[in-house]
Write a structure and sequence with these properties.
Elements (H helix, E strand, L loop, with lengths): L3 E2 L9 H10 L5 E10 L5 E9 L2 E6 L4 E6 L5 E7 L2 E7 L4 E8 L3 H26 L22 H8 L11 H4 L3 H18 L1 H18 L6 H50 L2 H5 L3 H43 L1 H7 L3 H36 L3 H6 L3 H53 L5 H42 L21 E10 L2 E11 L4 E6 L5 H8 L7 E6 L2 E2 L5 H5 L2 E4 L8 E2 H5 L8 H10 L3 H5 L8 E2 L8 H14 L4 E5 L7 H14 L4 E5 L11 E6 L2 E6 L1 H7 L2 H19 L5 E3 L2 E3 L17
Parallel strand pairs: 1-2, 11-18, 11-19, 14-17, 17-18
Antiparallel strand pairs: 2-3, 3-4, 4-5, 6-7, 7-8, 9-10, 9-12, 12-13, 15-16, 19-20, 21-22
Helix pairs in contact: 5-7, 5-9, 6-7, 6-14, 7-9, 7-14, 9-10, 9-11, 9-14, 11-13, 11-14, 13-14, 18-20, 20-21, 22-23
Length: about 775
């Protein structure tokens, strides 16, 4: 039995519980999240699990040593509470509590991840339920596809996500990236401890300098030069040691933080590549670029500088406090007078800064979104003379960003001077109380001098810690946006134990296939068998589901109902990369990367030789125009193929598909956007491409599908006709009406040019003699 699971959940298949769990799963049941249950009901340590799948919630109770299960339903809910370091995870329905599990807070991250996935599944069930009751009667959220409440434009699911508070504790989740460098971090902490200790030597040496040298000198005694040299030498040595240790500490921790930041960027980008297309449908390019770029840089800055400074400040305050209390407890207590007020201010300001920085992150994403939209589309901007409009759009987004920053700076500008004022008042109180103690003979002038030196460091570090509130909240907001990506589970997951593909024959079977976008059904109850090497043409009006069906066959999405099989094996049981390596895709708008012609042709097979690249280009009828370029195959193409015509880009795309020699070929309107002459060139290239391959083609011009073995006519997500061109024309059904509509359109175009008849595939039709009832006025079939 084969199963598919998220990468994170697969770790829970280890050990005896993992074996039991694997045996309990149904075919194709997907494990979405899991958390250990390490406490029993009476708070003894135990070993259990709570596992969320695409169908059920499973739990192994460490008390009774058996599994329980609950089928997912919209009325189920998970609740999590913690008290005294013990977390309680509860499962409820609308009337009662169904389950309770005790978990130590060391697994809090796993619990929160499971609850997040549970909520997504619950919302999916709610959407499906709403669809069944009021199909097409409610508006859908354009972001997540949820059904909006009546008379409301706000999506509850998105509102919960946006208003979810960001805690600084999210920074602790970065430990998974820091764990490989724990020894370097331990060394950095030890160096920090030694550096702090070395920095505290100097103030302590002021006591003997004052009491044994300077004050006796004022009283007429002779200065002991040897003693002076000793203390001054000790001050110099302590300063040099502090400098050396500080350099080593900064160097070690900076290197570690850079590597943590690099791993964070790489992991996030790799995870993005694994996510399905529905994730990208609700995200803006600029927003994702900002998360990987600006947010990781912010986190890296926090780890390399601010976290280090925070650790140093804490150590300095703790060690300074210990020294102050050892010198004079009463004076040390007076030193702590401003501390409660500063702590209260930090607590108050932290929440305002947190929400402010989250707002800044969102509005900055809008700025990058304008850039991501405008720069790739600069040709359209200039063609319609909309430069000023885009400049105004950028200025408006930038102004919103400025206003968001101003609101945060208003709070921060009041907080920082207030903390400084409190520390100055505290220093004044210490001076007053210290003079009183000196006058009463309780302490010496040297002790007061050393105390003032230590207090200066104490308050400086206290002030520095208060300033770290800002950068901590910035980093926490950035970490939350990064983990929003990392916590997202692909809707097209890889199976844990994928079926190994042998030689692919190319037989595709679709059984009762259904698919929905949100609550809108696009494909329903579709059954089709495609034989190995057969060419299938998909035709139908716009919105009939042709492109969606192609996306399902390519496994850009997974079916909602039924199954798609390759050579008798469900495609969900095959590793995604193995499956797609057998598919060649030629799109209506071919996408070329910035690089050379040869690199673009070899994109699917980077190790291809120059001979293989040239052979593919020849077969795609691209070799001749490539040789006319200044540097031939080494000519650079601009971003997205700028500098090449549409037909040239399409032939390079065909060469790219030819090079990987796929068993399955998908042509999505590959010739719809070119002129007739270019279409002939592309068609000759396609004739070479389809030889011996299972081919599924969508074409705007129905005449280009005459060579298909069978034509599949779709309407509203269903197959309404299947057959050859001649057979379908003889039936005079849906396909015949589409064909006649295109013929009539061609006739009208020809009449405008002074021609009275239209020729379609060598057959002349007199359009005036056709009954009006046989003509469908639509000429679109996508």
């Amino acid at each position: 039995m084969q199963h598919q699971h998220s990468a994170d959940a697969s770790a829970f298949f280890a050990g005896p519980l993992g074996t039991q769990l694997r045996a309990k799963l149904n075919t194709l049941e997907n494990v979405l999240a899991a958390t250990p249950v390490d406490l029993t009901a009476d708070l003894r340590f135990g070993s259990g699990q709570v596992v969320l799948t695409s169908e059920r919630l499973l739990a192994f109770d460490p008390d009774v040593q058996q599994w329980s299960e609950w089928v997912l339903a919209p009325d189920l809910s998970l609740r999590f509470f913690d008290h005294g370091g013990v977390g309680s995870l509860e499962l409820h329905d609308s009337t009662q509590r169904l389950g309770l599990w005790r978990i130590t807070l060391s697994h809090q991250t796993a619990v929160l991840g499971l609850m997040q996935q549970f909520e997504r599944q619950r919302e999916r069930l709610l959407r499906n339920e709403a669809y069944q009751v009021v199909e097409d009667e409610r508006a859908l959220c354009p972001v997540c596809g949820s059904v909006l409440p009546p008379d409301s434009e706000e999506c509850p699911a998105c509102a919960r996500q946006q208003n979810a508070p960001t805690s600084s504790w999210v920074l602790l989740r970065l430990w998974r990236f820091a764990k490989p460098y724990k020894m370097q971090l331990l060394l950095g902490f030890a160096l920090t401890l030694c550096t702090t200790a070395a920095q505290l030597v100097a103030p302590y040496l002021t006591i003997p300098l004052m009491d044994k040298i300077l004050i006796p000198f004022q009283n007429g005694e002779k200065i002991d030069a040897g003693l002076v040299r000793f203390y001054l030498g000790a001050l110099l040595i302590s300063a040099l040691i502090a400098w050396l240790l500080g350099w080593a500490r900064t160097f070690v921790l900076a290197r570690v933080s850079e590597r943590i930041g690099a791993n964070l960027r790489t992991t996030t980008y790799n995870h993005l590549l694994k996510l399905s297309l529905d994730f990208y449908g609700s995200k803006r390019t600029g927003d994702l670029m900002a998360r990987i770029g600006a947010e990781t840089d912010r986190i890296n800055l926090f780890l390399s500088l601010n976290a280090l400074d925070f650790a140093t400040d804490v150590l300095m305050i703790v060690m300074t406090s210990a020294i102050l209390f050892s010198i004079n407890p009463w004076l040390a207590l007076v030193t702590l007078v401003p501390l409660p007020f500063i702590a209260w201010m930090i607590h108050t300001v932290r929440d305002k800064l947190r929400t402010g920085f989250e707002k800044i992150d969102r509005v900055w994403s809008e700025v990058t979104n304008v850039l991501a939209d405008t720069i790739p589309g600069i040709r359209v901007v200039k063609a319609f003379a909309q430069e000023q409009r885009e400049a105004d759009r950028f200025a408006a987004a930038n102004q919103v960003n400025l206003e968001a920053n101003d609101r945060v700076n208003k709070t921060w500008s009041l907080f920082t001077p207030t903390v400084t004022l409190l520390t100055e008042v505290g220093l004044l109180i210490v001076w007053a109380f210290g003079i009183y103690l000196v006058a009463g003979g309780s302490i010496t002038v040297g002790v007061l001098t050393a105390f003032i030196a230590y207090i200066g460091r104490f308050y400086t570090r206290l002030d520095s810690m208060s300033r770290i509130v800002s950068v901590t909240q910035k980093a926490a907001a950035g970490a939350k946006r990064i983990f929003d990506i990392l916590d997202h589970v692909s809707n097209v997951p890889d199976p844990v134990n994928p079926v190994k593909l042998g030689k692919v024959q190319g037989a595709i079977t679709m059984e009762n296939v259904g698919f929905r976008y949100g609550s809108r059904t696009v494909i329903k109850d579709l059954n089709l068998q495609i034989r190995p090497g057969e060419m299938i043409g998909l035709v139908g009006h716009s919105g009939s589901g042709k492109s969606t069906l192609v996306n399902l066959i390519s496994r850009f999405y997974d079916v909602t109902d039924g199954s798609i099989q390759l050579d008798g094996v469900d495609v969900r049981r095959i590793a995604v990369s193995d499956y797609r390596s057998n598919i060649g895709l030629v799109l209506q708008e071919p996408f070329l990367f910035f690089g050379t012609i040869a690199e673009n042709i070899a994109y699917g097979k980077p190790d291809a030789t120059r001979e293989e690249i040239v052979a593919a280009a020849r077969a795609a009828h691209a070799h001749e125009f490539i040789l006319r370029l200044p540097h031939g195959y080494d000519s650079l193409v601009g971003e997205r193929g700028q500098g090449l015509s549409g037909g040239e880009r399409q032939r390079i795309s065909i060469a790219r598909a030819l090079l990987i020699d796929p068993r399955i070929l998908i042509l999505d309107e590959a010739t719809s956007a070119v002129d007739t002459e270019t279409e002939k060139e592309i068609q000759r290239a396609l004739d070479n491409l389809v030889q011996g391959r299972t081919t599924i083609a969508i074409a705007h011009r129905l005449s280009t599908l005459r060579k298909a073995d069978r034509l599949v006519v779709m309407d509203r997500g269903e197959i309404v006709e299947v057959g050859s061109h001649d057979a379908l024309m003889a039936q005079e059904g849906a396909y015949w009406r589409l064909y006649m509509a295109q013929a009539r359109r061609a006739e009208e175009d020809a009449e405008a040019a002074g021609v009275v008849t239209a020729r379609a595939a060598g057959v002349t039709y007199d359009m005036q003699s056709l009954p009006k009832s046989h003509v469908d006025g639509s000429d679109e079939n996508r």
